[in-house]
Records
---
Amino acid sequence: MAKKSWLPVDPTSHFSLDNIPFGIITTPISSTPHPAIAIGHLALDLHAFATSNGFSALPQIHPHLSTFSSQTLNAFAALGRPIHRQVRSYLQDILSETTSYPNILKENPALQEQCLFSLAKIHTHLPFQIGDYTDFFVGRNHARNAGSLFRSSAQALNANYSHLPVAYHSRASSVVISGTPIRRPWGQMLSSPSAVPDIPIMAPTRRLDLELEIGAFVCRSNTMGDRVSIEEAEEALFGLVLLNDWSARDVQGWEYVPLGPFNAKNFGTSVSAWVVLMDALEPFRTKGLESEVELLPYLKEKKQENVYDIQLEVDITTPSKTTTTITHTSARNLLFSFPQMLAHHTIGGCPLQVGDLLGSGTISGTEPGSEGCLLEQNRNGAVVIKLKNGTERTFLEDGDEVCLRGWAGEDGGRVGFGECVGRVVEAWEEG
């Protein structure tokens, strides 16, 4: 049964008492970013809560109260998952209808006024200082669909694909918070895919795409030269966000051989504002895609239910304000889990740091309307995507707004991410 709060929480809210996601906010009375949690339509300012003795009944956090004055979640995340678990559980108790500590907040209107703010009246910020960002490619349905567009179906997946979580190092400096506009990038591309000879032009991308992904933030560092075992990897993960890894497909098609995408991917990656802790997602564990090979021992997990049944949707809103939901799918459509990605990332001794971001890669189902990017839906530009009111798209146009949504659970106890939104703005003028 879903937990019930003394605060009003709409049954359809992503931020139920079963969730308690963490983020970074500024408020009408504080322009300095600091940690908060979301509950229903409200944010609980953890800086104001902590400085007013809100954590008086949780002695385990007393030596670390300064983390709630930090401008990112890095310091809090570095405390480790046992502390995250205790803080989340304590806040659930504080906000519960049957709270053990009614005098702290429930019956304290003065503190409520200091630390509870409508989500509509706050600003959210990047939750972490991100040192490095690695984008994986473990959505097998997407990999197979995309591979089939450029190679034969029999050769859609490379020989290594099922044996390891394929990835590339992406650009941390262009990861932005939901709501940040995304400027259409310039790049080298062929004037047409069949151009002969292969002489590129320089132009704004004509094939701007979205990618529906989940991102994971790291909360434990490892020393260079040391690996993180699959058994330890879970404890190195803080929580998950929605992630849109914007892509310029024409730029990508020209530049990606032999080292993979570069300018086609480094111009913008959007993430949702509220980080859902791994503990909040535990009830929604499920089996991912079945592996077609025997994995090497360092990637074998004891739990078969190693991914999460998170419902995912993508909307496109055109400049005329017409909104169409183009994708419905689930995060269970992953071949490898985040612990497997992390264990593989460090197998050669690569040092990860607190705040590093891991992207899942595009998540697609197998049915029409479950594809996680436009490239799949339009068959590499061969099919027009029908939106509402007769609008058509192949790729994104200036003024289009993309919104990702994700949640697990049912009404009354949803554990969700809110939205990850970005609007396309026109390219810079030449010269």
---
Amino acid sequence: MSKARASRSAKALPYKNLHPKLTSPPQQLEKPITRPLHFLFPRSPHHKGIYVASGIAVYAFTAYGFYLYTNLLAEPDHPLPSQDTDVADRYHITAKNFDANVSSTENIWGITRLRRRLAEQAKGDVLEVSVGTCRNGVYYDLEKVKSLAFVGQSGAMVEIARKKWNSLHPEYEHCSFHIQSAMDPLPASAIPEKGFTTVVQTMGICSTPTPAATLAHLGNLADPNDGKLLLLEHGRSYYSWMNWILDKAAAKHADKHGCWFNRDVGMILEESGLVIEKVERSQFGTLWFVEARPGDRRGGKLVQGKK
């Protein structure tokens, strides 16, 4: 029953106090018990790890978003390259500080962990293209690896890679470095009789003007029976809003860093003719971990769902 009906039924005046008077003084409320905030959020090492990881992830995403945003606003002072332009020469400039510039980002985004996972699978005669500064070198299991051939187009980066490798594995002799495009023929002495057991490429699709043809060529260099290709790439996202940002910032990013980070990796894999055995995507679908084997030029199949 509403207060209005109660007033009319009792014929109470509008100014009359309907609440009963207190017959005894009100009891004093007990002083509330105050406890520290960690009573609600227990401070265990596990929880601390979650809070720290979450904070780092938020910081990384914010910083990356700010980078993309500033790239969208900045006006170029010269013509920007197109998608079919070879921008690999930018690595000659960035080689010296490359490791320092990308190490923290790769750790935060989980790329370092994926590099380890990828390199630890390599076995037999191994070819790594787009070697960069040999950021995978520390993770190879040399008890499983028979030989290694490293290929990179930037002489400055390959020289850093060579010094890093020799520092990490000074006694390992079955290793060669080649300053050339992945599409150029390798010296006959570097190619195993049956082809390479494992072909590794990390962040290579983004820096070549012919990504599908390059992957097809790498498939031809692998052992047709037992060869395997391990790829760690980045490109387009699951989400249209993210792809819009990538597309807007791509030309400026490629002009500065030699990397097209908005390529359709799924389509490139299908066009390559490789047989795709496994695909895992993370970081809004922009990061691709791929296991494949040599195929034919009719095109391999790839389910581009969230895996």
---
Amino acid sequence: MSKVLARDLTRPVYAIDLRNHGDSPHDPRHDYTVLGEDVEEFIHEHKLQPAALIGHSMGAKTAMVVALHNSSLVEKLISVDNAPVDAALKSDFGKYIQGMKKVEEAKTKRQSEADEILKPFEESLPIRQFLLTNLVRDTDASGKPFQKFRVPIQTLANSLDHMADFPYKDPDEVRYVGPTLFTRGTKSHYVADDTLPAIGKFFPRFELKDIEAGHWIVSENPHAFREAAVDFLSDKS
């Protein structure tokens, strides 16, 4: 999606791996305060301010935190299926962690083997495939190959409660008044109607776009998301 947006908007797009994700460093502390600080540091380091931020799920709350903490860094904001509220994570995330632990314990050699182990924890093939993109090859002490996840599973498991939290509680103390788009999946519960008042207080210029999808909007309905993002980020002056 980042390459598509870069093409359609004719501007550079940086796809950032947050800490404990992708190829970024691992750290035992994993909460929105430090995630936001990491993104701010990246923006400063690459002299990108003001930048348009797009984030999905955990990334959405991280982007919101950056906008609320240092609004001068953020030109526009797109939140993908999350809201600025404390909300219990859908039980799926705990199941994903359990399944990924089972995969590592089995020391699988092929992705098809890992997929079979994940099936009882997630029936959707596209979601399993997304989770399995984190698999990398390694060898044990005897030189035998096996697969492991590049993300630190236990750290993420320990951080699930933090991921349900939102560090800002009072919109009278802090808000972001720049252009903001909240996209939500019509089959997802993360941006329920009862979260809209809080969204409006923290982000008074927000727009709302419903997309026919579950929580994984970008992978489930990439065309509709691309269309919404490009329309919102295009220079309409």
